[in-house]
Amino acid sequence: xxxxxxxxxxxxxxxxxxxxxxxxxxxxxxxxxxxxxxxxxxxxxxxxxxxxxxxxxxxxxxxxxxxxxxxxxxxxxxxxxxxxxxxxxxxxxxxxxxxxxxxxxxxxxxxxxxxxxxxxxxxxxxxxxxxxxxxxxxxxxxxxxxxxxxxxxxxxxxxxxxxxxxxxxxxxxxxxxxxxxxxxxxxxxxxxxxxxxxxxxxxxxxxxxxxxxxxxxxxxxxxxxxxxxxxxxxxxxxxxxxxxxxxxxxxxxxxxxxxxxxxxxxxxx
DNA sequence: TACAATGTTTTAAG
DNA sequence: CCTTAAAACATTGT
Length: 269
What we know:
This protein has two domains: 4-129, MutM-like, N-terminal (N-terminal domain of MutM-like DNA repair proteins, Alpha-Beta Barrel), CATH 3.20.190.10; 142-258, Helicase, Ruva Protein, domain 3, CATH 1.10.8. It is built from six helices and ten strands. The chain has helices at residues 4-13, 39-46, 142-151, 157-161, 172-182, 195-215, and strands spanning 24-27, 51-57, 60-65, 69-74, 80-85, 94-99, 103-108, 115-120, 247-251, 254-258. The strands form three sheets. Strands 1-6-7-5 form a four-stranded antiparallel β-sheet.
């Protein structure tokens, strides 16, 4: 489920475990979420360490522990973080559980497209450096965005919005929402947008991110009623702006929803 | 049954 | 080396 705001929501779930010691590490090293990770080092370092802090960047999360332990978590398509009672029994897809005196910190992921990374050291892990500008940072300028679009000028704008190296945190529903609010057809080549369109796109990327970070809770029910979000999976759904029947198709490898009336295939005429 | 699911990564081709 | 498109990954639900 997790895009920008959901990732932030899940990161906070482990907040009650801050400043508390990890008494035991429970994991199944054979699971795909640990691919390429030194599980033995993770176990050794985290046991007896204290959870000191966390941050999110796009869809990535980083948890910092005492004793120089750093754990990176990506939730993939179906991952989630939970906190439960200390003695909570691990469920079928709870592949990574940190036991504390009062709580259990759980990473659950049925589909296992998610990932757990580990690093030991004084400073941040190498895989946490050189990250793209966050969407709500000052570095995420329109100029930067336009350069990113023109370098992938022949790919559909929908596919480009999903690239984490340019738009960290944006996923399938956010991309559809942003394009719909910007009145840009998802198939339009990224390098062919007019200046007023890229200006609007940049503004909507930021506003959709800001509003969802402010409102997303356990479910997504409190996103603005006016958004496409509430209609994009309805069969026979209609555009909340003009009532046109919404369309769905595979664009950029993902199911994409748009309003054929608000979002025109070609500009001009 | 077959297909699709709020995501990357790999592979191949241009 | 860069961009683009498609398949692969593992599991569940419709």
